[in-house]
């Protein structure tokens, strides 16, 4: 688990900051944001987070949210460890809406950013196992529950401190439960100078891997 405490806010507490003009960032993906969002919130998808977190001001508090608070908690924990003043909306936009707070459902057009790394499905990932270093970026307690064979565990929260453990000349396959955290890790590696053609993200993560009938180590 993350050692850095995350400051969770109830919808009512978040509303007070919202009314004070504190910036809100939506870390969901493009299609989710397009359907409904907290009015005025800025889109910063978790899949692009490591490449774009510099857009978040460090000299003032900010609030992060997602659908239910899980993805934004991951982002908030990482930012808190970097010295940001950040809050997580507990329960996400779902709890915000259920509390009777405003949600903007006006249709918006938002574009998809091309990923600087390579996305692969389970069968393509299987073919990479002989040549690639497989890195599971989930937390240490998740790793024993089942991981891609041969994967090492470097939690996303520790990745900046453990870059030296990763080879730059060898392909790297990044894995998590669903592909979100590993996508963040892939973005970060490319930003740190790793060759995007050698950085792979397993789409759908271990869920998709297992659903394809491929084995997990425990």
Task: Write a brief structural summary.
This protein is of the alpha/beta class and 218 residues long.
CATH topology label of the largest domain:
Oxidized Rhodanese, domain 1
Strand content: 15-25%
In whole angstroms, the N-to-C terminal distance is: 19 Å
Can you summarize the main beta sheet? 5 strands, parallel
CATH architecture descriptor text of the largest domain? 3-Layer(aba) Sandwich
Organism: Thermus brockianus
Pfam families: Rhodanese
Domain Rhodanese: 18-105, 128-218
GO molecular function, one term: thiosulfate-cyanide sulfurtransferase activity
Structure report:
With 218 residues, this protein is α/β, with parallel strands linked by helices. The protein has 2 domains: 7-98, Oxidized Rhodanese, domain 1 (3-Layer(aba) Sandwich), CATH 3.40.250; 118-211, 3-Layer(aba) Sandwich (Oxidized Rhodanese, domain 1), CATH 3.40.250. 29% of the residues lie in helices and 15% in strands. It contains 8 helices and 10 strands. It has helices at 11-19, 30-35, 49-52, 70-81, 92-98, 122-128, 180-191, 205-211; strands spanning 7-9, 24-26, 42-43, 62-65, 86-89, 118-120, 133-136, 152-153, 172-175, 199-202. It has a 5-stranded parallel sheet. The mean pLDDT is 91.
């Amino acid at each position: 688990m993350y050692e850095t405490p995350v400051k969770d806010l109830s919808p009512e507490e978040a509303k007070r900051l919202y009314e004070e003009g504190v910036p809100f960032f939506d870390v969901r993906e493009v299609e989710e944001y397009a359907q409904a969002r907290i009015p005025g919130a800025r889109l910063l998808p978790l899949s692009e987070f490591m490449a774009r977190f510099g857009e978040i001001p460090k000299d003032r508090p900010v609030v992060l949210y997602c659908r239910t608070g899980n993805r934004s908690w991951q982002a908030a924990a990482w930012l808190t460890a970097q010295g940001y003043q950040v809050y997580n909306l507990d329960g996400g936009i779902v709890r915000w809406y259920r509390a009777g707070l405003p949600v903007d459902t006006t249709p918006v057009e938002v574009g998809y950013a091309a990923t600087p790394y390579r996305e692969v499905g389970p069968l393509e990932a299987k073919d990479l196992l002989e040549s690639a270093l497989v890195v599971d970026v989930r937390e240490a307690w998740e790793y024993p529950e089942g991981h891609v064979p041969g994967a090492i565990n470097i939690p996303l929260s520790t990745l900046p401190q453990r870059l030296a453990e990763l080879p730059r000349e060898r392909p790297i396959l990044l894995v998590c439960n669903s592909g979100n955290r590993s996508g963040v890790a892939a973005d970060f590696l490319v930003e740190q100078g790793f060759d995007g053609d050698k950085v792979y993200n397993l789409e759908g993560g271990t869920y998709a891997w297992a659903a394809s009938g491929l084995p997990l180590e425990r």
